[in-house]
């Protein structure tokens, strides 16, 4: 099953995704994309680490998440990626070919043998940013979100800690794991 959890900052995305993973009955592989460039971000990362169960395996990978997905995909694994917008930031900062990386990610997600939960920030509900780099960031994240949502079995928008299902799991479709 492919779950896509999207929402604004402090909307409850990570907590909701972690509860899904915890209740999956599978071994959880947490793929963290954040990089700590300052003390405040280091504190945020540490807070996320502290709230994860000790039995979960954490893989910190800011760029090559499609490789981690391929390597860790197994029927009895639940992969949790937090978060895709930080990943897009990492790609832009490293001047990577974002189209190639997005295509590789979508391909890897489509081949997952167990469950996968993807978390991302909704950046498209505000005004169009003034700066070129910020506009590109919002565009790239938005296009990625559309691809992930199309592929996902379920899409949940988090609003003020409340999950709003915007793409329910179809009762007519069974995802081949």
Provide a short characterization of the protein structure.
The chain has 177 residues and is α/β, with parallel strands linked by helices. It contains six helices and seven strands.
SSE topology:
Blueprint: E1 2-7, H1 13-22, E2 27-32, H2 39-51, E3 57-60, H3 65-72, E4 77-82, H4 84-93, H5 98-110, E5 115-121, H6 132-151, E6 154-159, E7 162-167
Parallel strand pairs: 1-5, 1-6, 2-3, 2-4, 4-5
Antiparallel strand pairs: 6-7
Helix pairs in contact: 3-5, 5-6
Can you characterise this structure?
This protein has 177 residues and is of the alpha/beta class. The protein has a single domain, classed as P-loop containing nucleotide triphosphate hydrolases (Rossmann fold, 3-Layer(aba) Sandwich). It is 42% helix and 23% strand. The chain contains six helices and seven strands, in the order βαβαβαβααβαββ. The chain has a seven-stranded mixed beta sheet, sandwiched between helices. Strand 2, helix 2 and strand 3 form a beta-alpha-beta unit. Helix 3 packs parallel to helix 5. It starts with a strand and ends in a 10-residue tail after the last strand. The C terminus is likely disordered.
Shape: globular
The secondary structure category is: alpha/beta
Q: Give the biggest beta sheet.
A: 7 strands, mixed
Report the CATH topology name: Rossmann fold
Whole-angstrom Rg: 15 Å
Order of helices and strands: EHEHEHEHHEHEE
CATH architecture: 3-Layer(aba) Sandwich
Task: Give the strand line-up of the largest sheet.
Answer: 3-2-4-5-1-6-7
| Strand segment count | 7
How many structural domains are formed by the residues? 1
Distance linking N and C termini: 7 Å
CATH class: Alpha Beta
Mean pLDDT score, rounded? 92
What low-confidence regions span 5 or more consecutive residues with pLDDT below 50? Answer: 173-177
Percent in helix: 40-55%
CATH superfamily label? P-loop containing nucleotide triphosphate hydrolases
Q: What is the beta-strand fraction?
A: 15-25%
The helix tally amounts to 6
């Amino acid at each position: 099953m492919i779950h896509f959890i999207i929402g604004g900052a402090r909307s409850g995305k990570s907590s909701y995704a972690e509860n899904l993973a915890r209740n999956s009955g599978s071994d959880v592989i947490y793929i963290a994309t954040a990089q700590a460039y300052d003390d405040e971000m280091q504190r945020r990362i540490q807070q996320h680490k502290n709230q994860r169960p000790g039995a979960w395996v954490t893989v910190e990978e800011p760029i090559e998440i499609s490789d981690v997905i391929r390597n860790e995909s197994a029927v009895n694994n639940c992969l949790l990626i937090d978060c895709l917008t930080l990943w897009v930031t990492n790609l832009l900062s490293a001047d990577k070919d974002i189209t190639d990386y997005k295509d590789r990610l979508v391909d890897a997600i489509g081949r997952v043998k167990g469950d996968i939960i993807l978390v991302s920030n909704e950046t498209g509900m505000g005004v169009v940013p003034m700066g070129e780099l910020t506009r590109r960031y919002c565009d790239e994240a938005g296009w990625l979100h559309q691809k992930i949502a199309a592929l996902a079995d379920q899409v949940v928008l988090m609003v003020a800690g409340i999950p709003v299902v915007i793409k329910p799991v179809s009762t007519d479709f069974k995802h081949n794991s």
